[in-house]
Amino acid sequence: MPRIVRGGLIQTINPKGPEHSTADIKAAMIEKVVGQIEQAAKQNVQILCLQELFYGPYFCAEQNMRWYDLTEPVPNGPTTKLMQGLAKKHNMVMVVPVYEAEQTGVYYNTASVIDADGTWKGKYRKTHIPHCLPGFWEKFYFKPGNLGYPVFETAVGKVGVYICYDRHFPEGARALGLNGAEIVFIPSATTAGHSEYLWKLEQTAHAVANGYFVGTINRVGREAPWNIGEFYGQSYFCDPRGNILKCASRDQDELVVVDLDLELIQQVRHQWQFYRDRRPEMYGVISDTNR
């Protein structure tokens, strides 16, 4: 019997550039995204994910302490509280990535999961932090996540989160499956010359290897003054067979809406017994810290 969940992804361009104050940038982006959430509600979206660090530019293109001003506590910060109210208003599960302050000077790249009744279910902190190539100086801003790979029981199903650079590491993707994830959201910020050839390969592979749905987001446009490359959009949902169900454009704001039949997970896992046939006792090399 079908078990249909309507999923949504929002990819969007910042309305104000970094020449504005951090407060103005954040306020303008939140105002814009709230409008997009309203559009998702009109399309009866039941679970919605926003893009990585959604209320600002991808400021990791430089190393500048001014961007620490974008941090806020989670769950007691203003953005999480606002989104809890919207989730309850629209009866919509939401995945909300923000720049989290645990305490002054201890900051994480974090995503909250909020249930359809507005209840804060918990958070995931980005595990793998890149510091490579001109324009991806994330270790200046974030500590590596320390919460493992939680999966959250929500009104529409079991939800896991992986963030951007995490997607290059299959170990966490498998951990999310072992922890029971049915839908894994992967909000990202990545540029064309660097990663586009992997975009529709890695995340569909995670879906196939682990037998769950994936919804992944990339931002769009070029962000001055850094111009580190084109954020190429193409946010999409894929199913446990690796089929891309719907893919957004590469250059404009877009809301991706797809109906996901979660019953397909059982069908695929019956066909491909990857969890039964895995051999964890043989994989010690993966966790060998001397490697």
CATH topology: the name is Nitrilase/N-carbamoyl-D-aminoacid amidohydrolase
Query: How many strands, which pairing sense, and closed or not: the largest β-sheet?
Result: 6 strands, mixed
Terminal CA distance reads 46 Å
Number of strands: 14
Strand fraction equals 25-35%
Mean of all residue-level pLDDT scores: 96
Shape, please? globular
| Structural class by secondary-structure content | alpha/beta
How is the largest sheet built, in terms of strand order? 5-4-3-2-1-14
Residue windows where pLDDT falls under 50 for at least 5 positions: none
What is the count of DSSP helices, taking H or I runs of 4+ residues? 6
Q: CATH class, anyone?
A: Alpha Beta
Instruction: Tally the structural domains.
Output: 1
Query: What is the radius of gyration?
Result: 18 Å
Please write the string of helix (H) and strand (E) elements.
EHEHEEEEEHEHEEEEEEHH
What is the CATH architecture term?
4-Layer Sandwich
How would you explain this protein's 3D organization?
The protein has 291 residues and is of the alpha/beta class. The protein has one domain: Nitrilase/N-carbamoyl-D-aminoacid amidohydrolase. It is built from 6 helices and 14 strands. A 6-stranded mixed beta sheet has the order 5-4-3-2-1-14. Strands 6-7-8-9-12-13 form a 6-stranded mixed beta sheet, with helices on one face. Strands 10-11 form a two-stranded antiparallel ribbon. It is globular and about 55 Å long.
